[in-house]
Amino acid sequence: MATVFNPGVHYEDGVYTLFERTAGQLRPFICYIGMMQSQDGVHFEHVSDQPIFTPEMAGSKLGSVQDPRIAKIDGVYYMTYAYRPFAWNSHPTGVGVPESFEPEVEGHTGNPEDNMTRTGILRSENLRDWEHYSWATPKTLDDRDVILFPEKINGRFAAFRRPLQFVGEKYGTDRPTAWISYSEDLHEWTEPELIDVPRFDWENGRMGMSTPPIKTEHGWLALHHGVDVEDAATKRVVYRLGAMMLDLENPAKVLRRPKDFLMEPETYYEKFGLYIPYTIFPSGIVVRDDELSLYYGVCDTAIALATVSLSEVVDWVMSAELRDLD
Q1: Residues 239-289: pLDDT tens digits?
Q2: Structural domain for 303, as ranges
Q3: DSSP output for 254-267
Q4: pTM higher than 0.85 for the full model?
Q5: DSSP, res 285
Q6: Spatial distance between the Cα atoms of 8 and 212, rounded to a whole number of angstroms
Q7: Which residues pair with 27 in a beta bridge?
Q8: How many domains does the chain have?
Q9: Of 164, 162, 155, 79, residue with least CA distance to 113
Q10: Is 217 exposed, middle or buried (0-12, 13-18, 19+ CB in 10 A)?
Q11: Average pLDDT, stretch 214-243?
């Protein structure tokens, strides 16, 4: 195994189930989704020595399936995942984002526009056996960070999105950012609605949602990542974590958004790793009583766990001044 990171996590009946993104090599960087379980949320064991979902199951054995997020809605489990038809050949630099190239393989034109990342949805009745159910985004958009809300809103499914090409005056943002769409059936989706734009120095490159949102008495607590481009020439970046509170009935409406970040790379393993240095990428979240457990990828190399009081995070977000959004 070369790397494991960016997990989706679900807790139910005393069992933590973690879905890992993993790869055995970098060239090509073919990623799979594996399944692990734990009684304490810390010590995990694989339920099988085989992945539960592969690129071939999505449509191309030469592709990559990535960054699972989990939601249980009306008794059914759903997993969103990012899918690239042909896995890149990646060359880490140790300084910033790796140099990655389109592979020269049969079936691929070599044109990046023919190999963009779209998002699919898996469905399961038992959390173990999964099948592709629908596409949440078209193949003509590079659209990831698609995350389902844990319940329907006004009778419709809701999902965060981050369409990479939605940039410019027409879209109201000069950098890729977070959007939201709705669906009656998980097959047809409304046009994305803008949630907010990158506003602060620590998200000067782009932003996108990180984990499934948490419903609170104040609104939807939504965690998002911000990418700070420190050196464009070397592609040196820093991934940090922020938070915002969204309206319960209209999640495109931001109620509070602190200007400061919630979390940044601090430990050695958050700063140095195989793939992208200085990267924390939360993708799995569990709330039990008042404890929020955050599962996150570090440097696209390993999986880490951080815990915090949910009420403290909510209080911190709600203490933000509205003028922080001006």
Answers
A1: 999 999 999 999 999 999 999 999 999 999 999 999 999 999 999 999 999
A2: 3-325
A3: EEE--SS-SB---S
A4: yes
A5: E
A6: 9
A7: none
A8: 1
A9: 164
A10: exposed
A11: 98
